[in-house]
Amino acid sequence: MNERVLAIYPHPDDETIGKAGTLINHVKNGDEVTLICATMGQMGRKMGKPFFANRETLTAIRKKELLDACEAIGIRDVRMWMMQDKTLQFREKSFLADKVQAVMDEVKPTLVYSYYPEYGVHPDHDALSDATILAINRLPRKERPVFLGSVISREGQDELGAPDIINDVSHVVHEKIKALQAHRSQTEHWLVAVTDPSISVQERKELLEKQSQEQFWIYRHKNI
Amino acid sequence: MRPIEKEKIQEKIDSFAKKEVFIHMETSTGSYIGVQNPDNIPACAYIRNEIIQFTEGKIVENEAWYSVGLKIKNGWIYVEGLTDWEMYDKDTLLLGGHDTEGNLKIGLQLSHRPFVCGE
Q1: Which of B92, B63, B93, B94 is nearest to B80 (CA)?
Q2: B89-102: average pLDDT
Q3: Under an 8 A CB cutoff, do A153 and B35 touch?
């Protein structure tokens, strides 16, 4: 049976960094993939290296980067909420949960990808994942999708232990690199190692190996 | 944006004086600064689309960077660390300070119209 995948992230590039290979696999498997991107990352400080964006052009640049990355991944259903970057933590949790729930009611996901609550480091990550859990917990137990969380904080890795799922995405790593390259303003400074002829074969190999593994932790639903 | 041109910017600052104008100001260490070293606590702030009016404003060269001060009715607006500038959308003044990685560390922007803002 095919999965219905709903990926829920606050910023353009969240869907790609650490997840694009997995999402590419879902698309290749014929799973339906929907992406929610809550903000445009319009208050990010990375402007490219050397910088080519400014505060006022960043919104349109990152929107284009997101759509290009989604094309590389194969995501056709992208929901852009155009909320203000860095402000999700100040919104009512139920307000964010309502927005997530509206999409879940429509998509009826069997799998939800987001950051793991409390371990996403960025306040927007944690606000949105927290609200997503609230939305999921509103569903009858049998209808709840599996929640696959990404962990950024060291604390999270210490407390949760080894990831529940480690995906080898080496067979799609070049497609993943295309998605990463699409987010040029945010990734070019370290992705240059893929194309820079002065980088050693060994260094390039290490970069590709690092990108070939993606890990997720299954959220254990708390009783509420 | 391009490296600061002090005289041109001073002219632009003067053109915003004694009028109600929209201001955007920001500074940021980035939210991920504590991931490698938890002793590093982020320090980020922005204010977007407040309306201000200043009576006098000046850009000053410090060492490798510039500062701007704007005298407002009840106090001051102060920004240090500017390195680059641009006129955006004809008459919107963008001033920014970038680090060697291209990150925007500090910004001051003045406009006659509200800046586009997410919900």
Answers
A1: B63
A2: 96
A3: yes
Answer whether A54 sits within 8 Å of B94, measured CB to CB. yes
Sorted by where each starts, the structural domains of chain A and their CATH numbers stand as: 4-218 (3.40.50.10320)
Shortest CA distance from A185: residue in chain B: B102
Across the interface, of B31, B84, B94, the residue whose CB is closest to A121 is: B31
User: Range with the lowest mean pLDDT among A3-17, A172-186, A190-204?
Assistant: A190-204
Question: How many beta-carbon pairs below 8 A join chains A and B?
Answer: 78
Alpha-carbon distance of A18 to A13, in angstroms, equals: 9
Q: What count of other Cβ atoms lies within 10 Å of the Cβ of residue A87? A: 18
- Residues A108-148 have pLDDT tens digits of 999 999 999 999 989 999 999 999 999 999 999 999 999 99
User: How are strands ordered across the β-sheet holding A77-83?
Assistant: A77-83, A32-39, A4-9, A111-115, A146-150, A213-218, A165-168
Report the pLDDT averaged over residues B104-111.
98
In this structure, which CATH number among 3.30.450.20, 2.40.280.10, 3.30.70.1350, 2.70.180.10 belongs to the domain B2-33+42-111?
A: 2.70.180.10
Q: Does A91 touch chain B (CB under 8 A)?
A: no
| pLDDT over threshold 90, residue A194 | no
Find residues 192-211 of chain A whose CB sits inside 8 Å of chain B. none
Tell me the sheet residues that pair with B50. Answer: B23
Q: Distance (Å) from the C-alpha of residue B71 to the closest C-alpha of chain A? A: 24
pLDDT at A78: 98
User: What string of H, E and C letters represents the secondary structure of A26-94?
Assistant: HHHCCCEEEEEEEECCCCCCECCCCCCCCCCCHHHHHHHHHHHHHHHHCCCEEEEEEECCCCHHHCCHH
